[in-house]
Structure formats: C-alpha cells, structure tokens
C-alpha cells in the first residue's frame, strides 16, 4: 500500500457518516451513467468523498481548487481507482491550474462540485458549450457562495447550485471547528511559536472567524477581532474579545489570521506599523486577503523557508505563511480540517450531489439551500455513529408547536 492509499485508509475509518451513505449508493447507483466534475482540495478526506460518488455509479473527474493544497500521493492513489480521473498536482503554475480545470470540463460533467466556484466560472465565461448538458452543481465554501450569489443577482447563473456552505451541518462544524482547529494547528506546526500570551488578530467574525477566535482564546491567546459588520463586531465584543480596526490592530498583533473571503484585508498601509516578527496568514480562500505582491516588490530582502516567506522592510521582518494562500492546507504539513468534521461536510456534498442529479433539470438557474430534512438526516446519522440518543417530541408537543390558539 503506497502512502496515498495509507492516508485514504486512515481517513476512511473516521468517516462513518460518509461510509453509511456509500453503502446506500452502492446499492441504489444514483449516479449511474453520469459524469461528475470536481474542483476541491485533493487530499485524503476528499478522496473518500470521490470514492463514495464513484461507488454510486459516477465517472468522476477531479482537480484541485488551490495550487498548494494538493497531496500528490493522494492524487496518484485516486488515479489507480476505477472510474476516477485526477488532474491535480501540488505547486502547479497558474497555467497548469486552469489547464486542469479544462481537463475536468472536457469530460462534459452533468454535475459540478466546487470549492471556490472555479469550475462554474469557467463554464459560464469560457466553456459555454457545456451549459446544455449541466444538470446543476454544489458549492463548498463561503467565497464560492458569495461569487454565486453575485452571479445570480445579475441573472447570469444559468443552472441551479446547492449552497452546501450555508447549511447548519456545514457552518456549525466545518467553519467553526474545522477552520478554527486546522488553522491554528498549521500555524503552530509551521512556526513552532507559542500561542499563549500572543496578541492574535482575527480578521472577520463570521462562522470561521468566531471558531478561530474561540479556539485561540482557549490556547491562551489575547484575541483581537476586526470587522466591518456592526452586528458581528458587537457579537465579538460580547463574546469577550477586543474589537478594533485593522489600522489599530496592526501595531498590536503578533499573529494575524484573515477569515473574510474578501480582498485587501492586510495591505501596505498596515505593514509599517507591525511588530518585527509579526506572522501573517490567510484562512479565507483565495490568496487576495494579504497584499503579498507588495511585499515581494518592496522588501529589502526575502528569506524563504518551507511554508514561510520572511520579508525585511525598513529593518524589521514580517513573516507570511503559505504564500498568503489557505494556511490550513497550503503549508507543507497542512492537513486541512479534522477528519470527523469533513465527514459531515462531505456527507452534505454527497447527498446534495444526489439531490441535484435527481431534480436539477427541473430547477431554473440560481442558488438553492440544502433541504432541511437532508441536513437533519446527516446529524442523525452522526449521532447514531457516536452512540448518542436524543428526545423526540410527543404528539401533544407537536400539536402545541403547530397550533396558534392553545394556551391563550
């Protein structure tokens, strides 16, 4: 067994929900005769999802969604499996990255599964001949959903897409616990610095930012939150964190983590006031949150280590992790979210792909929520795997909750 197979086997044992879905897929073959195109982080947990879809009858073509997140041994292992074709490789050039996107699309997928909307963007802007054969898609991450909603608002999204990111079983676990734990793990593993006592600046207090702030606080960090939404800023304040602008936080922070999914969060305006030795990282999606290009152009010197680029400017040094890309996956030892978290997220993906395969052709273009009953079913499967039982409503309670005049 090669290293890629060993990684996949290790992950599979901690993914009981996806395993139960795979068993059903093997029996029912919901994707028989169908091609699925995917652009996700190609690592062991993703491989278990790919195997699940292929077990359901799909011909799967997959590439990466980030130039630094692919694990080459896992990609090689996937290519040894029947009905699976993987084009991803780590540290690919921009040209190679988009060439691999096109190779996935050359297979003429009926269903797309994206993490960042690169497949859907390419279909709508450069491969429009594929639109007639697309049934629908699924989107994994916040950044992709933002882009899709912008397309839908302009009337330019021409097939239905399930917003996997926006359902509770994704947001409550993947975004909060997955991003929080995996980002801090990647930072600590890459730098070997102590979190306790450090001023750790979290940019953005959505589900990812909140999870990161809570986990960092639990490790003893002195957490500072920056926000643009007054409600989230107030929430961070009442959760016990310092809240201020990035202009103010730049001078105080020892470690910075962006989680906004937006561009230009930490820029050349902030670098001059930072401490020497400040560590910058991005836990959003695309490498646009940190102005790395400015550092590359203006630094007096650059020293490169595995996963760390150190820029000397005006006598002080600023460290950027993973080239400003997704820190929990793009650092050399980045493993992404914990396995059990991705068991839930990829269970949502698998069932959403089945759902869109069945009814996508009946839906107009747009962004659609994951059906609530599907989300609850995944939670129930996970509780069963954990051996946890919960209460159920009595008939009297159901009647009370659905009535408007009882008790008045």
Describe the structure.
The protein is built from 16 helices and 15 strands. By secondary structure, the protein is α/β, with parallel strands linked by helices. The protein has two domains: 218 residues, Rossmann fold, CATH 3.40.50.1480; 151 residues, 3-Layer(aba) Sandwich (Rossmann fold). It has an eight-stranded mixed sheet, sandwiched between helices. Strands 3-2-1-4-5-6-15 form a seven-stranded parallel sheet, sandwiched between helices. Helix 3 packs parallel to helix 14 and helix 8 crosses helix 9. It is globular, with a radius of gyration of 22 Å. The model has no long low-confidence stretch (mean pLDDT 95). This is Adenosylhomocysteinase.
Name the features.
globular; one-carbon metabolism; 16 helices; EC 3.13.2.1; alpha/beta; Rossmann fold; Adenosylhomocysteinase; seven-stranded parallel β-sheet
Please outline the helices and strands.
Blueprint: H1 3-12, H2 16-28, E1 35-39, H3 44-55, E2 59-63, H4 72-79, E3 84-86, H5 94-106, E4 111-114, H6 118-125, E5 136-139, H7 142-153, E6 160-163, H8 168-191, E7 199-203, H9 207-218, E8 222-226, H10 230-238, E9 242-243, H11 246-249, E10 255-258, E11 278-282, H12 292-298, E12 301-305, E13 308-313, E14 316-321, H13 327-330, H14 339-359, E15 366-368, H15 372-386, H16 395-401
Helix pairs in contact: 1-3, 1-4, 2-3, 2-14, 3-14, 5-6, 8-9, 8-14, 14-15
